[in-house]
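Q: Please design a sequence for this.
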C-alpha cells in the first residue's frame, strides 16, 4: 500500500514536470511598466486588448511616453482595443482613437471599477498595478486565450 502511494506521488510529480509551465515575469517601477508596453511592440501586425483606466495609466507611465508609442504602434501595424470607464479622462481619450491607433469602448464607471490595467497580447497577459508600480506578465497560450475570450464577451456587451 505504501509503495503504491509513493508510486502515485512520483507519477503525479513526473506529470507536472513534463508539462510546460507558464513563464512569469515581474516588472517594477515606472520604467518596468513601460517595458511591458515595449514588449507588445515586438509583435508586429498584432492586436492588443485591454481593460484600462486612462487616468491611472497616465499617472503610472506618463502621457508623453504613451503619446510616443502611438506612432510606433501604427508603423508596426499593432491595433489596440480598450475597455475603459466612462469617466472624463477616458471619454476624452476615446475622441483621440484615430490618432492613437486604437478603439475604446466605455462602460459605466459607477457600476464597474478598473483602477489599473489588464493587457492581453500574443500569448501573454499583463496585470498592472499603477499605484504599486508593478506588473506581472504571464506567458501561456491557454491563459491568454481565456482572458481574450472574457475580454471579447465584455466588448460585445458595449
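A: Design:
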Amino acid at each position: 500500500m505504501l509503495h503504491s502511494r509513493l508510486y502515485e506521488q512520483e507519477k503525479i510529480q513526473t506529470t507536472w514536470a513534463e508539462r510546460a509551465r507558464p513563464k512569469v515575469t515581474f516588472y517594477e517601477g515606472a520604467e518596468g511598466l513601460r517595458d511591458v508596453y515595449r514588449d507588445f511592440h515586438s509583435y508586429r501586425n498584432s492586436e492588443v486588448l485591454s481593460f484600462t483606466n486612462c487616468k491611472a495609466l497616465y499617472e503610472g507611465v506618463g502621457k508623453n511616453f504613451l503619446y510616443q508609442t502611438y506612432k510606433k504602434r501604427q508603423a508596426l501595424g499593432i491595433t489596440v482595443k480598450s475597455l475603459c470607464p466612462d469617466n472624463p479622462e477616458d471619454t476624452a481619450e476615446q475622441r483621440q482613437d484615430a490618432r492613437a491607433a486604437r478603439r475604446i469602448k466605455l462602460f459605466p464607471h459607477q457600476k464597474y471599477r478598473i483602477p489599473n490595467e489588464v493587457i492581453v497580447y500574443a500569448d501573454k497577459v499583463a496585470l498592472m498595478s499603477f499605484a504599486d508600480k508593478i506588473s506581472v506578465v504571464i506567458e501561456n497560450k491557454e491563459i491568454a486565450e481565456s482572458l481574450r475570450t472574457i475580454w471579447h464577451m465584455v466588448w460585445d456587451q458595449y
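Q: Thanks. Anything notable?
A: The chain is about 50% helix and 25% strand. The mean pLDDT is 89.
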